[in-house]
Amino acid sequence: MKHISILVPQGAILGSIEGPRQVFTEANKFLKSIGKSAFCTVQLVGLNKEVRVAGGIYTVYADVLAKDVAKTDLIIIPALDGDMVKIIEQNQEFVSWIIKQYKGGAEVASLCVGAFLLASTGLITGKKCATHWIAANDFRKMFPDVNLVEDKVITDEQGIYSSGGAFSYLNLILYLIEKYAGREIAVFMSKAFQIDIDRKSQSQFIMFNGQKDHEDEAIKKAQEFIENNVGDRITVDQLASTFAIGRRNLERRFKKATSNTVVEYIQRVKIESAKMNLESSRENVNEVMYNVGYTDPKAFRLTFKKITGLSPIEYRNKYNRERVVAFA
Fold first, then answer.
1. Binning pLDDT at 50, 70 and 90, where does residue 323 land?
2. Which of 110, 147, 229, 325 is the most exposed place for a label (fewest CB within 10 A)?
3. Distances (CA, A) of 155 to 81, 124, 158, 299
4. Which domains, from first to last, does the chain contain?
5. Closest to 277 measured CA to CA, from 320, 247, 223, 230
6. How many CA atoms lie within 13 Å of 243's alpha carbon, on the beta-carbon side?
7. Residues 6+ apart with CB under 8 A from 278
8. Residue 24 parent element (H or E)
9. Could you read off the pLDDT of 183-214 as tens digits, one per residue?
10. Distance CA 290, CA 231 (A)
């Protein structure tokens, strides 16, 4: 039987503690109802017996203190809220405990922005990690040696797991149930909790706002130029000439400042504009395509799907407001 430790750190988001606890517990109940043994025991593990969460609104009572857990099989790091630097400092005892348990054979899973606490252990340096897309830029700054995969819902590498943003952590919990208890149990839990099983990407949910939290004023002006001329065909050479920066220097500085190449940034700005049009307007896909500066339908479809995970028509059918109301 697996021993699962759900951490209760300072700054934890309550739902990502209770959610996994509830799903694991219900999976055990279902197994017992069909004459099988429970697959896990679940404990809430704290540094203190009482932990105030959600800005002090709630108190979570830990089942056991970390110092009293000699060995566990799976550690769940919940999502966190607040200043990540301070939160990591407040949870340093967990950092050393996680490292010790992992070296002793435990697996570790982070939920949403719990990835910051996971990354602070150094266990995922050079490895893949997912987190909420809103926190992606801050994560890259704090942990440049981690391979952040912004579009993924789940990563699984050498006994370390991570999940994408918000409630997509439930997909990782199902993934772990399938691994430990079997596909049948995971499918039942997906139906019981109405979770879309096997969802692989969070790309369709990402809203691209650009990365302007940097000090390179020339690059900020280049970003604004791209965003203000979304319907034009903009080239790297044009930007270099407009802002009197050598092409190679522009590309180097742009990548450093925004974590995107110039071409990637142009594409993401255009596709974000196309997404908003597809969500709210009555224009057809070709009209939307022309509005954001594409003339080749195939190139537009390929770029749109690469960034969002859906074709333009699939995206429109799923998110267009008038269409959703019409079929309600």
1. low
2. 325
3. 21, 11, 10, 29
4. 2-203 (3.40.50.880), 217-326 (1.10.10.60)
5. 320
6. 24
7. 285, 288, 312, 315, 316, 319, 320
8. helix 15-33
9. 999 999 999 999 888 777 777 777 787 888 88
10. 7
